């Protein structure tokens, strides 16, 4: 569903000013949005996943380990598809606290695509290079939205999610390097337009939530603080926006209608989007090349 059609429906969670800000800037932040009773459950579920990771000695399809990870001191960069690893995450993602929020920017009928939990352990956890999301999982239109929830909050020294305001209205950049490797990183030579006045660093207390347009350029610095910076990232689209390719982070819940009804017709935005690699074999192999400082998508 395109923005002009979304705006024909009344907002449920956002104010009209917030909704228009999302479409104008490519993002909107909601301080302390998620209620404490949900944060308590999410923290407990995350602690269980962290405990399970103690037996891991190398990154796999679920756990992306940080340098220094061990059974005694587990350190995680990411958990893929947390909704498939613990029922609390899916319960949360399918509840109105998330789906009504998504509906305000994608339309009343909402489809789930995928999710990840960027734990980003402290003491030097690596960051994320500037990139855009939609080239990794292209859809028939550009309605997909990532909702980022800071489970414990985020301060300036924890490597907050950093946005290039208004960049969703610009071009989509190639996510391939000169050798043809898919690196989910915009080349430095293509970032001359990215001036400090366009950069927004999103910080806030526990439950602070960010809605991010799928075309918006974003990244983050390393986490230099002692504490981890867990950021839960479910992705939703309008029910009439269909993926062209398999997801790099597959889930049995991909395509689930979490609000409203399934679509009978697809919405199309004919602006071009670069295709990612063939994700059917999983995403891990495409990262097994040299000189890549990006993180597996």
Describe the structure.
By secondary structure, the chain is of the alpha+beta class. Helix content is 18%, strand content 19%. The protein is built from six helices and twelve strands. The strands form two sheets. Strands 1, 2, 3, 4, 6, 9, 11 and 12 form an eight-stranded antiparallel sheet that branches. It has a four-stranded antiparallel sheet with strand order 5-10-7-8, with no helix packed on it. The radius of gyration is 18 Å and the shape is globular.
Q: Major β-sheet, in short?
A: 8 strands, antiparallel
Figure out the total of helices.
Answer: 6
Q: Kindly state the percentage of residues in helix.
A: 10-25%
Q: Quote the beta fraction.
A: 15-25%
Q: What assembly state would you assign to the polypeptide chains in this entry? A: single chain
- How far apart are the first and last residues' alpha carbons, in Å? 25 Å
Query: Overall mean pLDDT score?
Result: 93
Instruction: Please mark out the parts with pLDDT under 50 across 5 or more consecutive residues, or reply none.
Output: 284-297
Let me know the number of strands.
12
**Outline, from the CA principal axes?**
globular
Radius of gyration: 18 Å
Order of helices and strands: HHEHEEHHHEEEEEEEEE
């Amino acid at each position: 569903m395109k923005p002009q059609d979304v705006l024909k429906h009344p907002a449920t969670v956002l104010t009209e000013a917030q909704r228009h800000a999302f479409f104008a800037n490519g993002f909107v932040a909601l301080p302390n949005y998620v209620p404490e009773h949900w944060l308590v459950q999410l923290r407990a579920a995350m602690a269980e996943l962290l405990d399970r990771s103690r037996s891991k000695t190398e990154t796999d399809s679920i756990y992306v380990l940080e340098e220094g990870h061990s059974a005694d001191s587990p350190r995680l960069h990411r958990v893929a598809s947390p909704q498939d690893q613990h029922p609390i995450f899916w319960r949360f993602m399918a509840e109105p606290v998330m789906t009504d929020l998504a509906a305000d920017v994608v339309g009343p009928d909402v489809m789930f695509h995928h999710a990840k939990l960027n734990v980003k352990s402290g003491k030097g956890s690596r960051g994320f290079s500037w990139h855009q999301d939609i080239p990794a999982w292209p859809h028939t239109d550009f309605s997909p939205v990532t909702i980022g929830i800071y489970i414990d909050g985020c301060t300036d020294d924890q490597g907050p999610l950093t946005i290039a305001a208004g960049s969703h209205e610009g071009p989509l950049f190639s996510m391939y390097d000169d050798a043809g490797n898919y690196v989910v990183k915009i080349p430095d030579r293509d970032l001359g337009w990215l001036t400090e006045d366009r950069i927004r660093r999103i910080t806030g207390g526990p439950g602070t939530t960010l809605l991010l347009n799928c075309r918006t350029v974003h990244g983050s610095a390393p986490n230099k603080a002692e504490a981890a910076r867990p950021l839960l990232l479910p992705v939703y689209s309008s029910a009439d926006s269909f993926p062209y390719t398999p997801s790099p982070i597959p889930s049995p819940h991909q395509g689930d209608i979490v609000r409203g009804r399934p679509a009978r017709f697809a919405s199309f935005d004919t602006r071009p989007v670069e295709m990612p690699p063939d994700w059917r074999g999983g995403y891990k192999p495409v990262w097994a090349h040299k000189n890549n400082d990006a993180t597996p998508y």
